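It would be a great kindness if you could assist me with a short task in structural biology. The matter concerns a single protein, recorded as an amino acid sequence and a row of backbone structure tokens. Kindly check, if you would, that the fold set down in the tokens agrees with what the sequence suggests. Thank you for your consideration; the sequence and its tokens are set out here:
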Amino acid sequence: MKKQPKDLIQYHFEVMGAFYNFIQTEDEEVLMDKLYSIERHWKSWNAIQKTNKNMWFRFFKNDAAATTINDIMRDLHSPNRKYRMESMQICYDTAEIKVYFS
């Protein structure tokens, strides 16, 4: 039986804050720095496992996508930019974010 990834609630507030800050400033560098910092934090706490897992998100309830940091960066430089920013806004407004590593 395949084990489901665990939602890491300890990162919800920081991720939502990064999204909110980006919506306000549109500073991609600050957004990416914050998200990669969160990912590095998790990896440092789990270094003993020597894992290659990466962080991914579900922005809101019933979000069918598994969005990685790289997906976010790619979307911000594509026609999907508006959709990605709307997803971040919904995430911040509803606090329904899910943060996973797998």
